[in-house]
Amino acid sequence: MGGLSVLPARNQTRNLGFGLDATHTTADAPSFVKESTPQTLEFPLIHPEHVSNDERANAIIDKHVYKISPLRVLERKILAYPFATTLLKALRKYAAGSRS
User: Fold this and answer.
1) Structural domain includes residue 61
2) Does the residue 22 lie in any domain?
3) Number of structural domains in the chain
4) Other C-beta atoms within 10 Å of 35: how many?
5) Predicted local confidence at residue 2, as pLDDT
6) What is the mean predicted confidence (pLDDT) over 61-75?
7) How many CA atoms lie less than 13 Å away from 13 in the CB half-sphere?
8) The domain containing residue 57 runs over which residues?
9) Alpha helices in the chain (DSSP H)
10) For residue 72, is it within any domain?
């Protein structure tokens, strides 16, 4: 956890993997896939001077692409702290012992 992903300023791909003849994604393509058409790049490429985490973009991708709820995102953020993982393990152990 804690890394950054790079997204191009312009879409470079066309996703053909949706529809009745697809292997896994047999439903119709979601609107964000249909509306995302390939665009040409302009050269020379200009790289940003600073790189940062875009929480708003992450939330949109989590919700619509990965189907991750805001509660799960909060859980991931809390578990990023080492003490939280240790505490969670202790609570699970305690809960397992109290059920016996």
Assistant:
1) yes
2) no
3) 1
4) 9
5) 64
6) 80
7) 7
8) 48-99
9) 31-34, 55-64, 70-79, 82-99
10) yes
Q: Which two tokens stand for residue 36?
A: 């995302």
Residue 70: cis peptide before it, omega within 30 degrees of 0: no
Q: How far apart are CA 62 and CA 75, in angstroms?
A: 13
Q: Does the reported pTM lie above 0.85?
A: no
pLDDT given for residue 86 in this prediction = 87
Please indicate, yes or no, if residue 70 is contained in any of the structural domains. yes
For the chain, how are helix, strand and coil distributed in percent, rounded to 5? 40, 0, 60
Report whether 62 contacts 73 (CB < 8 A): yes
CB-based burial label for 75 (10 Å; 0-12, 13-18, 19+): middle
Distances 35 to 24, 50, 88 between C-alpha atoms, Å: 21, 29, 42
